[in-house]
Amino acid sequence: MRDFLRRLPKAELHLHIEGSLEPELMFSLAERNGIRLPYGSVEEVRAAYDFADLQSFLDLYYQGMSVLRTAEDFHDLAMDYFRRASAEGVVHVEMHFDPQAHLARGVELPVVMEGLSRARRQAWRELGVSSAMILAFLRDRPAEEAMQVLESAAPYWEMLDAVGLDSAEQGNPPEKFAAVFRFARELGIPRVAHAGEEGPPAYIREALDLLDVCRIDHGVRCLEDPTLVARLRDERVVLTVCPLSNVRLRVVERMADHPLPQLLEAGLTLTLNSDDPAYFGGGMLQNFAACHEAFGWSKETFTGLARNALEAAFMSDERRQELLHRLAETR
Ligand code: ADE
Ligand code: ZN
Known about the structure:
The protein is 51% helix and 14% strand. The protein is of the alpha/beta class. Strands 1-2-3-4 form a four-stranded parallel β-sheet. A four-stranded parallel β-sheet has the order 5-6-7-8. The termini are close together.
């Protein structure tokens, strides 16, 4: 089964590229940039990844990315990830990135864009992995700041496949970003948002109604609201579910308690994703394998989930048809 799950052509729709920073690369970038880390070894870093909730993870996530300073750093970060993902059978990666987290450290958007763009071209050329860019706004920062980021990203609007909304969810409802997302819509940029990870089902509704998103990142708490579940099913809203992330951030206690079987049973359009693979114990293959171990799903179920991702991905129709064909051929 693991070989089958590896062979499946997988599209990853929910990945934070900064969350793919493995401790080994964190150390080598720290050394290259003369930055002191509060850890003595790679093992110490991994031992620190014992999270109580989303915020306790975010604290280390923002600290970890402090080693990213130059375009070369962003290039190396993304290439390191593309290589690992490709080895797991990932054929397409949609990367969230957090400009505000870098601006706060004096790293300007062009530095981030140059490094990531170079890695994307190299991944396509050398690995045959296609990719997309999702500029994410930090919801625990002021909406005015998000608006400034979107305005200052004008030279890159054409390169953005979507804008997203991430960081600390509780107390930061989608409503706060209605004007920013309206502007993105006027620019013709698609929209996605994290909602219903730690926050209530009402945030999922708001993301649909006020931000006009085409996908909900996480969304697992929708099950608390049957009317919302019916709407998500009827409108075929895609949920980008991240099972290992939900366990590590204690959204659920154990994989066996994960609501994925109920979400499937409810007829929702689901995809499996890794979120922050360096922090949550594995990439796409580990997430698929963890579902197999916990739920014993059939090959058909996994093929269906992989198909949902290909159908929902930001990619050309030509690329989509090619990958759907490859999926149909995978046994
Ligand atoms: N940023 C990186 N990972 C995140 C997650 N799982 N939820 C919200 N913001 C994030
Ligand atoms: Zn996420």
